[in-house]
Amino acid sequence: MNIPLANIGETRLTQEGEVWFSSGADLSMRYYPWRLLDGKIYPFVGVSFNTMKLLLEDAQLGERAEGFIATSALAGLSYSFKGWRINAEWMFLPKNDIDFYSNTRDKHRYELPNSYFSIGLVRHFDFTLGEEGPKRSGKTKALEEMLLGDGKLNSISVGFAPNGAHFLKSPSFSGDLRSLPNHKGSFNFEYSIGYLLHKQKLHFGLTYRTYSSNSISYGWEHVVRRQALSMEGFKFVANYHGFVPFVGLSLSAERWATGLFERDIQQDETVRSSIFSPGIIFGWDIQPSSVDSWVLRTNLRYYPNQKINDIQGKSSRVDQFEFNFIQFVFYPNRWWNVRQAKRSYEHG
Predict the structure, then answer these.
(1) Could you give the CA distance from residue 26 to residue 67 in angstroms, rounded to a whole number?
(2) Roughly what angle, to the nearest 10 degrees, separates helices 332-347 and 139-148?
(3) Residue 148, burial from CB neighbour count under 10 angstroms (0-12, 13-18, 19+)
(4) Separation CA 329–CA 159 (nearest Å)
């Protein structure tokens, strides 16, 4: 994932300057045909999913902003030195035009720049190297066997992560509201508590998150708010040298609210909904050893066929896909038990 610190160059799409665009964070994959070595330059190719935003300002109507995701091909060069890497890359958008409401009823097509140049700085780090010595010497395996019989590798878990929620379905608008953009999603934080059964490779827990999504167009604003408390269980299905995938089920109790505003004045009453949503959860842990007291986890959740009551007096689909890429998970019981076992082992 790349996050731009600054944009350099022209961002106006019209000479009058009322239509602007900006590029945001992107999720990309790069392939290097040759191994990266310090002090040398190597080429790469890849693909990128870019978040972008288009903004139109009208002196009479107000403004309208809409975010979208574009797919681009990329190619570039990398230079590595002492754990750092400099990337210089060129991104190309095969499809660079977009339809955008220029008022509350009419769409016009705007053409974005079809290529972007960027320079990035990357810092390499590895928090698993410290585990290699104990694993090779057999110390890690001995600690695991010492604790496994008494169930001391089972533990309460506490997790925290920034989380993204994406609307796979979104309320649709008509009439004077048709220019309102579809809700795309929102970033929030998730908090979780659970319990790990080490031998069975099972984890059960509760996860809470809340967010608000705003759709804005020429004085109109549609607001969606969501609170979700999910009961989840999943099983770790493999271990690929510390990459540990899992899959399971999630049952989410949720409260939704929708409201419509014109020039910051609420129209009608807030409409509320309470639903139970079954879904799936999957992802992976980065687990350097079998006795770690903390791990980095990636969670992805999918809730299909979610329906809520909307301000237009109808049922709307709001199917959700959620993701976080770096959740910090801590096992306090395991931390204490491993700490005590290491002391016993070392004084053996």
Answers:
(1) 13
(2) 120
(3) middle
(4) 4
How far is Cα 177 from Cα 219, in angstroms, rounded to an integer? 10
C-alpha to C-alpha distance for 120 and 47, rounded to whole angstroms: 16
Structure tokens at 338: 């491993």
DSSP3 helix / strand / coil % (the chain, rounded to 5): 10, 60, 30
Three-state SS for 243? strand
Among 312, 328, 315, 216, residue whose Cα is nearest residue 275: 315
- What pLDDT was estimated at residue 325? 78
Which residues lie closer than 8 Å to 42 by C-beta, 6 or more apart?
A: 32, 33, 34, 36, 77, 78, 80
Q: Is 13 left (phi over 0), alpha (psi -120 to 50) or beta?
A: alpha
Topology (CATH) of 129-347? Porin (2.40.160)
Compute the distance between CA of residue 162 and CA of residue 82 in angstroms, rounded to an integer: 30
Tokens of 246: 């899992």
Give domain limits for the chain.
19-123, 129-347
For 207-231, write each residue's pLDDT tens digit: 999 999 999 898 899 999 999 999 9
pLDDT of residue 346: 61
CA distances from 344 to 26, 50, 348 (A): 48, 52, 6
Q: Are strands 155-167 and 320-330 parallel, antiparallel or unpaired?
A: antiparallel
Strand partners, 1: none
pTM for the predicted model, two decimal places: 0.83
d(CA 305, CA 316) in angstroms, rounded, equals 10
- Residue 33 makes CB contacts below 8 A (sequence gap 6+) with 42, 43, 44
